[in-house]
């Protein structure tokens, strides 16, 4: 049985929680049918899990994080989180076949009537598959990892691993919790980066991207993944380190070159090369590495190459790494903060109207850059359900054209590239992943030649 921990009383649990601005942005995508907006973590175990113990841990998780037991409620066209009447219902689903698991995943989350987290457990000859689904309007990838870490601790009955919540009141879910980690003298430089990112983001206006087919009504979602084993990542890491770059820089460079390989770059027509990346603020600005509450605590940064690709992979990597090093010195991911004062007081329905109008303009739709979101490594201790899974990875939220989102997550030295797209776009995404792999193989071949 799960032990009864004593948490600080939370009066908010019986009332409504307000949406943070980041939550609203995710909800806008859902309202405009631009994606399903949930994040999955998939775990593969060699031995079977205790279903009753897992269900009790899921129930305890709702007490630990009251937001997960809420539904979206509307008051005067303003979204709020309101406590669900039957919070334990539908938390854990036992599936008996791959087809049932696929049906569960395609069904997704019902944010208006269901919990904001649910899990499916599938037992097979090789062990157990556990899939956890978290509403992106509650948490980003970093928040999802925190949720899974707490669930694993509850399953193990590990009170020490939950000490961050014991006796503490409900904390902040906003981006303000990271501001104190940024020295005041950096803000003028961050503002300059903000202005530069706007210029590089609109001049020239069109962004180079794949031409994905239009999305159908209620499309079936396909998960496209590619896993790089520990040896491949070790070689790539050594190559990147030699060139004063990171693994993430190498994948960004590979994505740039793969996009050009998949669709000819119309430089003469003033089409700019742009790939935006995401930054998890927990890693960069919070010493403990953990937010005060589960939340969306990440933002974009913009290593836009615009009109310079480089003659080979080495040059592309050099261009990307120079931009990311500068960003890390002066407010990595923080430049969007300067937009917040202009949008936070706009009513949600007005935001919805403005974004819908923006997407109807073909010229503006042409300037939606693809995204590579590095969801970071999954710590083996945080997915310890009495046994360490042999495989673990995160999947980015299902997102629809004209947007393109690619995810990257790591576990035990391996890395998994992922995308959740409509079925009719899956062939192009598989081809893009193959092109990325080809570019990375070129990089490691160059490294081998340099070493030899």
Question: What's the gist of this structure?
Answer:
The protein contains 14 helices and 14 strands. It is of the alpha+beta class.
Q: Any chance you could write out the topology, listing elements then pairs?
A:
Layout lengths: L15 E3 L2 H11 L6 E8 L5 H14 L5 E6 L2 E6 L8 E4 L2 H10 L9 E8 L2 E9 L5 H16 L19 H4 L7 H16 L18 E8 L1 H13 L4 H16 L13 E5 H5 L12 E4 L11 H17 L10 H4 L4 H13 L1 H4 L5 E7 L13 E5 L9 E7 L2 E9 L3 H26 L1
Parallel strand pairs: 5-6, 9-11, 11-13
Antiparallel strand pairs: 1-4, 2-7, 2-12, 3-4, 6-7, 8-14, 9-10, 13-14
Helix pairs in contact: 2-4, 7-14, 8-10, 8-14
- Tell me the overall shape: globular
Mean pLDDT: 89
| Major beta sheet, strand line-up | 8-14-13-11-9-10
The CATH homologous superfamily of the largest domain: Nonribosomal peptide synthetase, condensation domain
Give the amount of beta strand, in percent.
15-25%
Helix content: 25-40%
Describe this structure as you would to a colleague.
There is one protein chain. The chain has 452 residues and is of the alpha+beta class. It has helices at 21-31, 51-64, 98-107, 141-156, 176-179, 187-202, 230-242, 247-262, 281-285, 313-329, 340-343, 348-360, 362-365, 426-451, and strands at 16-18, 38-45, 70-75, 78-83, 92-95, 117-124, 127-135, 221-228, 276-280, 298-301, 371-377, 391-395, 405-411, 414-422. The strands form three sheets. The chain has a six-stranded mixed beta sheet with strand order 8-14-13-11-9-10. The longest helix has 26 residues, at 426-451. The chain is globular and about 60 Å long. Mean pLDDT is 89; it is low at 1-14.
